[in-house]
Amino acid sequence: MNCPEETIWIELSLGTHDTETATALRDHADNCTTCAARKTAADHEHDLLNTWHRTVIAEHQSQQPIDALNGQSMTNIRLADAARTSQPWRQPLTLLAPAACIAIVAFLAFGTSRSIAFADVQKALANAKSVVCRFRANVDANQSDGDLPYSILTISPTHGVRQDHYVDGEKSGTTFTPRIGPIISTTPTDTYVITRQDAADDASPSRPMAWLNDLRTIAANNVSDATDDTIDNQPALRFDVTTLGGTLWVAPDTLLPIRYVTGPKAVHRHARSTIYDQFDWNPNIPDDHFATPNLDDAHHTIQPSFDLDGFIDSLRFFATQTGGTFPASLNCDAVDTEMSKLTDYFGPFTEDGTYKARTQQASMYLGTTCLFFKKLEQTDANPEYHGHNVNTATPDALLMTWKNEDGTRTEVNADLSVTVIDD
Amino acid sequence: MTVMDPNAPTTHSDPPRIADRNVDDHNADAISDKLCQCEPILVAYCRTTTGNAADARDLVQDVFIRACRKLETLKDHDAFGPWLMGIARMVCKEWIRSTIRRRKHHTAHAIHVANQSHTHPPADPDQHQTHESLRHAMQQLPHDHQLAIHAFYSTDGGITRVCHVLNMSRASAYRLLADARTQLRTLMESQETSS
C-alpha cells in the first residue's frame, strides 16, 4: 500500500471508512513512520476536540439550576415549557393537568399535611406555566389593605413579567420586564422609561419573578414540614422557608401558592415585608397583554445602566449637548446647576410631554453621573474628577480616575476612553 | 389592553382552539425535544464565540427564546436544524457587534478584566491555553464548518446529528467534516507559527 493522502488520517479518526479499509490503514501506519506521525496528529486533534466539547458542555451543565426532584436541568424544563407555551392554543386545562395530578395523587395517597413535602410544592411550581397575583412591598403590618399601593403581577414563562401599579385604587403605570430586552415602564403621562437590563439579569434578586424562581430552586430540605393553617377561612398548608426569610401557604389540593409573605429585607433590601396573594395560576393570558407601547422618540426616556457603561454614556450625553464640556462637578447637590446648562436640549416648554420627557432624560443622565461618583466616594476608591477644566478638545486629558478593589486604577480621559492600569 | 382587577377573577378571552392552528401538542413535544437535543451544539457554538461560559449560557437562552417565539414561521420541520442554527448565528453576530461597541470606550484590558470576572481560574493552565487556541481556530471557520464540528463532537449522535443539523446527506456531512478538520489544522498551525 502506498502512503495515502494526509487527509485520510483525519477521515479515519472521524470513522468515515468501513472496517476493512480502516484496518488496512492502521496496518500501514504500523509500518510507516511518516503515516504513523500523521495518524497520531489526527487522533490527537480528534481527542482535543472531544475534550474541549466535553469540558464546555460540563461547565454549562454545572451552571444550570437543577430540579431537585428529577435531576433535570431547569433550563431544559423552561425550554420545553417555552416550546409549549409559545403555542397559545394549548388549553389551560392541559397546562394545569400535570400540577393538579401530582397534587391530587399526593393528597389522596397521604391525606395529612405532614406527608406533603416542599419538594411536592416545587414540582407543582415547576409544572405551573403562568400566574397572576397581587404584590405589595414595604408593607407595614398595621396598615389597612385600602391604604397600600400594590401591583398586579402577570408572570409568563415566555414573555416575562407585566406589573400593573395601583395607588389609592387608581392605576399609576405599567412596567414590562421581558425575558429579553429592556424594561419598559409607562406612566399616565405616557413618558416611557427604558432601563438596560437584559436576559443576563434574569436571575437578579431585583427582577420581579426572582421570588418565584427562588421558591422553585431552593433546596427542599431547607424548608420546614407542612403545618395545617387557614387563609381567609380556607384550609391551607404552611411552610416556613427560613432561607428566604418567608412563609408560604399553598392550597391543599393543587399545592400551588395562595399567599407568600417575606420578612424584612428578605427579598427587597429596603422592604419591611412583602406580600404576594390573590393568586390565579395558569390563567389564559392574551398575547397583547405583553404588547409594549410603540416608543415615540419624543416621549421616551432612556435610563442609563448604573455601571461604568451607563456612567460613560451619561458623560457623553452631556458633552454632546454642551459642545464638548463636562459637568463641572459630580456632586449630587450640583445637579440643578448642571441641568441649567442643558436648556438648549430641553427646548421651550410644550404641553405634549416632549419637554417633560427631555427634562426627565437629562435628570436621569446627570443622576447617573453623580450617583456613580457618590458610590465611589463611599468606598476606598478615592475618585478624582477634573470636569471643570477638561473638555473634549483635549482628548488625552485625564477626566476622572479612581482606585479599584483589586489594586488597579481606572482612568477616564476626555475622549471618554477607559483604561485600567496597574497602580 | 386588559387591566385585571385583583379583587375579581381574571377575565381573559378564551384561547384559540386547536383546530384554528396547524400544530398540535404532539408537535410541541417533538419540537421541545429537538430544542433540547440541539442544546449541546448551541452551547459549543456560543462558547466558541464568547470564550466564557456565562455569556455563552445567556446566548443559548436567547437563541431558544427567539426560536420559541418564531416557531410559527418554521414551515418545513425537516429544516429545523439549519433554521435554529441560523438564529444562533444571528444572536452570536449581535453579541460580537455589541462587544465591539463596548470596546469603543473600554480598553482591551478592561474587557479582559470584565471577562475574567465571569470565569474561574483554569485548573490546568496548559490545557486551558490549548483549548483557547482551539477555540480561536474554530472561531475562524466558516459557519457550516463550525456547526459540523460542534454537532459531531458535542453530542453522542455523531455523523447522524451532523446530517440533521445541516440537513445534508451522510456523504456530504463526512466531506464537510473532513474539510473542517483540515482547515482547523491549518488555522492552528498558523497560530503556532505567529506566536
Largest sheet of chain B: none
- Structural classification of chain A: alpha+beta
Class by alpha and beta content of chain B: mainly alpha
> Gyration radius of chain A, to the nearest Å?
29 Å
Shape of chain B: globular
Order of helices and strands of chain A: HHHHHHEEEEEEHEEEEEEHHHHEEEE
Question: How many strands in all of chain B?
Answer: 0
CATH superfamily of the largest domain in chain B: RNA polymerase sigma factor, region 2, helix turn helix motif
- Poorly predicted spans of chain A: 65-114, 198-203, 267-271
| Major sheet attributes of chain A | 12 strands, mixed
| Distinct helical segment count of chain A | 11
Helix content of chain B: over 70%
Task: Output the helix-strand order of chain B.
Answer: HHHHHHHH
Which terms summarize this structure?
heterodimer, A: about 425 residues, alpha+beta, outer membrane lipoprotein receptor (LolB), chain A, 3 domains, 4-stranded antiparallel beta sheet, 16 strands, B: about 200 residues, mainly alpha, Rna Polymerase Sigma Factor, Chain: A, Arc Repressor Mutant, subunit A, about 0% strand, disordered N terminus
How would you describe what is shown here?
The complex is a heterodimer of chains A (423) and B (195). Chain A has 423 residues and is of the alpha+beta class. Chain A folds into 3 domains: 7-62, no CATH class; 92-289, outer membrane lipoprotein receptor (LolB), chain A (Clam), CATH 2.50.20; 297-422, no CATH class. Chain A is 35% helix and 22% strand. Chain A is built from 11 helices and 16 strands. In chain A, helix 1 (7-14) packs across helix 3 (33-62). Mean pLDDT of chain A is 77; it is low at 65-114, 198-203 and 267-271. Helices cover 70% and strands 0% of the residues of chain B. The longest helix of chain B is centred in the N-terminal third of the chain and has 26 residues, at 25-50. Chain B is an all-alpha fold and 195 residues long. Chain B folds into 2 domains: 24-120, Rna Polymerase Sigma Factor, Chain: A (Orthogonal Bundle), CATH 1.10.1740.10; 121-195, Arc Repressor Mutant, subunit A (Orthogonal Bundle). Chain B contains 8 helices and no strands. The radius of gyration of chain B is 21 Å and the shape is globular. Classes of the chains: A alpha+beta (423), B mainly alpha (195). At the A-B interface, helix 1, helix 3, helix 4, strand 2 and helix 8 of A face helix 1, helix 2, helix 4, helix 5 and helix 6 of B.
